[in-house]
Amino acid sequence: MAHTALLFFVGPAGAGKSTLVATLKEWLTLQRFDPIAVNLDPGAETIPYAPDIDVRERLTLRDVMAEYGLGPNGAQVVCADLLAVELEWLQKEIEALNCDYVMVDSPGQTELFLYREAPRVFVDGLSSRTGLVMLFDPLLSRTPAGFVTQLLLAAAAHLRFPVPMFPVLTKSDLLEPEEVDRILDWAADLEVLRSDMPPGEGMDAILSGELLRVLQTLALESQLVTVSAREGEGMDELYSLVQSAFAGGDDLEAHVDAH
Ligand SMILES: Nc1nc2c(ncn2[C@@H]2O[C@H](COP(=O)(O)OP(=O)(O)OP(=O)(O)O)[C@@H](O)[C@H]2O)c(=O)[nH]1
Ligand SMILES: [Mg+2]
After folding, report:
1. pTM of the full structure
2. Which CATH architecture has domain 5-242?
3. Can you give the residue ranges of every domain in the chain?
4. Do 168 and 225 contact (CB within 8 A), yes or no?
5. Which atom of ligand 1 is nearest to the CA of 11?
6. For labelling alongside 103, which of 32, 41, 56, 155 has CA 20 to 30 A away?
């Protein structure tokens, strides 16, 4: 699996992870790549793509709730821990499919993905070319406070998983073009973000220049890409970022040159 690029899609509940996996898979297939989609959410009810590998074959939220007498949240925690024993299974499944791109769709409970041990085993153990696609929810990103909160989540993700991170603003079709521009300005220059903080709410005072620099380094090491999975927009830009982060990835380059 040395040449397989593995992307984990992570972000707030409902930010559009599964839909982005579906759209990017379609786009990559059109570019004549050979992507596969992995559903890692044992509680998923409906999924907008046909998963090539599905954790629900091994483990479902419903079964864990029944077996352990837990509610859905407690059962998600148990599921996250039980995932650890599925590493070998997942590895074999991925190897058997022999593809260039593996897109892993994570459950909506991002904090479980970030803070429990099992997902870390997956991120560390599956490929040397692993990245994190970090989704920013458009409606939460509209206000400076909402945007900063997501930067903190992204920073935590990057601390936890020191692999290339690709921040993505999703569902851009739900925002006005000026709103998208403003969010991109904040991402490019956190001083602009600070000056847009409404005075008197405390955040402007708390967010010192130093903290902003830390966030910039951790959360936005790569430029923020705007996508709309619904409209199929931004896939080329996201792909180029991933591709250049994994450059030296000769086989992927060769693939692109081939047509
Ligand atoms: N307008 C618009 N809606 C979108 C887009 N992408 C996803 N959605 C909608 O947003 C909702 C959540 O999308 P999902 O892809 O299920 O989000 P998720 O992050 O996988 O959700 P969880 O796994 O439950 O955390 C669905 O109703 C999608 O149809 C988009 O690009 N534009
Ligand atoms: Mg989902």
Report:
1. 0.91
2. 3-Layer(aba) Sandwich (3.40)
3. 5-242
4. yes
5. 19
6. 155
